[in-house]
Amino acid sequence: MLIDEKIEIRNKTNMQIQTLLKDAGFYPMLETDKTKTLSEKYHGYDYLLSMDILSLTRENLIYRKRDCSQKQQELQQLIQLTPKDLWNNDLDEFLGAWDVSYRHSTLI
To answer: Do 24 and 6 contact (CB within 8 A), yes or no?
Structure first.
């Protein structure tokens, strides 16, 4: 949105920027630590406002969109799996790693 100049944050107060981000549909960040009070947990839009300027380049935007698309495809594949499928996949991966480790330890 900053790249496309839909949100202008230059020369705005912090409160104005937070209002712009809220109106644009961004969510404020809260910690999940249950031992902290709400005011200690609230970080507002710091996760966006503390971003490195280089993360706002068009190249980075293209990369992030491609990465997001890939992650959405991965999510759709995971949604298709049952809990048993997930367990079996994890078990196969573990057994493969364990077998490699076992073979390596017997060679030493």
So the answer is: yes
